[in-house]
Design a protein that fits this description.
Number of helices: 23
Number of strands: 27
Radius of gyration: 26 Å
Strand content: 15-25%
Helix content: 25-40%
Structural class: alpha/beta
Strand order of the largest sheet: 11-8-7-6-5-4-1-12
Shape: globular
Length: about 725
């Protein structure tokens, strides 16, 4: 295990461990949430489901909760029976921390954790959108902003970043992660760890990251959440493990195990994953926490006979902290005393938990000061500016027939769709700490940027559409901007969709708008790639805005006006039809690659490839690649490619470098991303872009996890997407 503490800090951890009773040790392994009691006639979990599925409104839920009380487990904290809580009110954090530090026997501070997936108060774009910025500096800066904001509320532990490689857009949680590519995911992971954890100038400035969901959750069968995962181990090592390994290498402090089983063993009780790979092979120094209720769910999985058995299996496998089931708190002592769980297992888990708390400075600075609490009562301009920058860089121009975009500021714009006025739907899934006063809706932003904007709700992802209002929109506007897509609740956890076309009657609304004869710009707000074959054929301009965060309106309006030249690229491929899922660029070749011929790997009723590939995105200017050169220089490939801005606007192109191992002992992907670089180019300017690629990065893992470098022919690709590339070949010996 890596040493992350000073000698003095490590000695204090060991001294505490020696002094702790078994009950106190198990208490550190127990994470609680506030328990909701009173005020309703059904279990709290069912109440949440009733709000989620629409049986009660959010307003009705709020009224019920107003008469409820919360139990924060104060008595258990006094006894040393709680190691962590999920709370974000700084006053309550201090109150509970005071009980732990001043009233428990050993005074061990609590660690407060929360899902901070894409921002705390300053919500920036969902991860699948932000990853499309291909900007590691941006990834790091937004994480650093989130860390500072949450620490001011007493939250020192982020259940983020989410690093699941996700290739099936039907899976709702594709919204939370950096997309389909393991290299981009790894670069995203490293940047997020640096941003969350590396500013130690003050304990107010950093948090402990929590990598989730370890591992393979993004490969659930048919994209259905919580489903089973089966995969060849070379896919595990070469794709799904890579972002996690990169984040551990960068210094990530905690990991959350995934809900799913991997090849028959749930990750929650998977000793191979938690001990052999994570803690031993990767040298992970921190602690592992279960996902919510996951230890109990091992009984339902059928891997454990009962909750006692589930607790035993989880602890032995290397699960250090139990999120929310109290199985450790209620059963683990007896399991230790009966010899079913060795004391060494408990000691190791507690040592890891105390180590992270010590690293966070919680022993010396357990409380949130009043000055710190007030720091973000009003968001600083630098935070809102960064949220806007992230949104602008994440927006992807998918289509722009006849250069409808950008729109002149003096043109009449008919703004259509109920999503356009919402300050809630711009936030996206898994954002918990935002305030409506900070949110700029699409309507707000458009009115601030353009001279003539009139809003026509017409319809949205749910409910009916108003045909007459759509016709009136056409009568008013020189241009129709239709903001359509998904609500935030249509993606994220437990939001898998079997049909990923634009939901509801929105396509019908588009048809009506097209019939008006006015140019239509489709702005998509969504949390996953959508199947857009009809829209690509008939709608002249398409802008992928995703769920862009609190500055959505300002960012989108600046892109539509041309104040910002769009530079976002897709971190996930878009299928033409739902039935093509999973679709991803770095697939293996087959003996009969898809073609127009009958007996090849294809569908009879779908295109051969994705509608929009990984790395794709248009601009208000055009780029041209030329003169790709590859030279071997010892242990490095020196690669150079020229890129020119051939249009009439300044812009930033994402230069993407891919490789292919043409013949190997295992079938390899047709392309693999190895590097990328953002290049600013003035209109008419040409630049040479250089990559130094170590030859040892051209290897791969076999099914036993052995890393192989094999002599042979390699293809090197460079271009503006995974599909449009120049290529050169080179034979290499290692």
């Amino acid at each position: 295990m890596k040493n992350i503490l000073t000698e003095q800090q490590a000695a204090k951890v060991e001294a505490l461990l020696q002094e702790m009773t078994l009950d106190e040790k198990i208490g550190q392994m127990n994470q609680e949430s506030p328990s909701i009691v009173g005020g309703f006639d059904v279990p709290f979990e069912e109440l949440i489901e009733m709000m989620t599925d629409g049986r009660i409104t959010k307003e009705e839920f709020g009224k019920i909760m107003a008469s409820a009380t919360q139990d924060f487990h104060e008595d258990e904290i006094r006894k040393g029976g709680v190691g962590s809580l999920m709370v974000q009110d700084p006053v309550k954090v201090n109150e509970l921390q005071k009980i732990a530090v001043e009233e428990s026997r050993l005074g061990i501070p609590l660690i407060f954790g929360l899902d901070v997936i894409h921002g705390f108060r300053s919500v920036y774009p969902i991860a699948i959108a932000e990853a499309g910025a291909f900007d590691t500096d941006l990834f790091e800066r937004t994480a650093r902003m989130a860390a500072k904001e949450s620490r001011a509320a007493g939250v020192a532990w982020h259940f983020a970043p989410m690093l699941d490689v996700a290739r099936d857009a039907r899976w709702g949680r594709v919204s939370e992660g950096p997309g389909e590519d393991p290299y981009l995911g790894s670069e995203f992971a490293r940047a997020k760890i640096r941003g969350l954890q590396n500013d130690h100038s003050s304990t107010d400035n950093y948090v402990a990251a929590c990598l989730k969901h370890y591992v393979g959750y993004g490969a659930v069968e048919s994209g259905r959440d919580y489903n089973t995962v089966s995969m060849a181990m070379h896919l595990f090592y070469n794709n799904y493990l890579k972002p996690f390994a990169a984040a551990v290498d960068e210094g990530a402090m905690t990991v959350m195990a995934a809900f799913n089983d991997l090849n028959g063993v749930p990750c929650t009780v998977n000793e191979f994953l938690l001990r052999k790979i994570l803690k031993e092979s990767l040298g992970f120094p921190g602690f592992v926490v279960s996902d919510a209720n996951a230890i109990r769910e091992c009984v339902v999985h059928g891997i454990a006979e009962d909750e006692v058995d589930a607790g035993i299996k989880a602890a032995i496998a290397g699960m250090d902290m139990d999120m929310g089931t109290e199985i450790y708190a209620k059963t683990l002592k007896e399991s230790v005393e009966s010899g079913k769980v060795p004391m060494a297992v408990i000691d190791e888990a507690v040592r890891r938990i105390l180590t992270v708390k010590m690293w966070l400075g919680l022993f010396d600075n357990p409380y949130v000061s009043e000055e710190t609490m007030k720091r973000y009562e009003t968001l600083p301009k630098e935070h809102t500016d960064l949220a806007r920058e992230a949104a602008e860089k994440s927006i992807v121009l998918l289509k722009n027939k006849d250069r409808i975009l950008p729109i002149a500021k003096d043109r009449k714009i008919a703004l259509v769709g109920t999503l356009a006025e919402s300050r809630e739907e711009i936030i996206g899934a898994w954002a918990m700490s935002w305030q409506e006063k900070d949110c700029v809706s699409i309507l707000d932003g458009m009115k601030a940027e353009f001279e003539h904007v009139k809003y026509f709700p017409c319809g949205g992802p749910e409910g009916d559409i108003d045909r007459n209002e759509a016709i009136r929109a056409g009568d008013y506007g020189d241009v129709i901007v239709a903001v359509l897509g998904e609500t935030a609740a249509m993606s994220g956890e437990a939001s898998s969709r079997a049909d990923i076309t634009i939901p509801g009657r929105q396509r019908e609304l588009l048809e009506i708008l097209m019939e008006t004869g006015k140019p239509v710009v489709l702005v998509l707000m969504n949390g996953r790639p959508l199947a857009l074959s009809w829209e690509e054929e008939f709608v002249p301009a398409i802008v992928e805005a995703w769920h862009p965060g609190i500055q959505a309106g300002n960012a989108l309006a600046r892109v539509l006006s041309g104040a910002v030249n769009p530079e976002g690229r897709l971190a996930s491929s878009f299928p033409a039809l739902t039935g093509m899922c999973p679709v991803y660029y770095n697939h293996m070749n087959t003996g009969r690659p898809g073609s127009k011929s009958k007996f090849t790997s294809r569908y009879l009723d779908a295109p051969l490839d994705s509608l929009y590939p990984f790395g794709y995105g248009l601009s208000y200017t055009t780029y041209e690649f030329s003169n790709l050169k590859v030279e071997e220089d010892g242990d490095v490939l020196n690669i150079c490619v020229d890129v020119a801005n051939t249009g009439d606007r300044d812009g930033r192109e994402t230069v993407q470098l891919y490789t292919q191992d043409v013949a190997a002992s295992l079938v390899r992907p047709v392309k693999e991303l190895k590097r990328f670089e953002k290049v600013a180019l003035a209109a008419g300017e040409k630049k040479s872009v250089y990559f130094a690629l170590p030859k040892n990065e051209l290897g791969f893992c076999d099914n036993e996890g052995n890393y192989l470098l094999e002599d042979g022919l390699f293809r090197i690709y460079a271009g503006g997407s995974s599909r449009e590339c120049l290529s050169e070949e080179i034979s290499l010996k290692f």
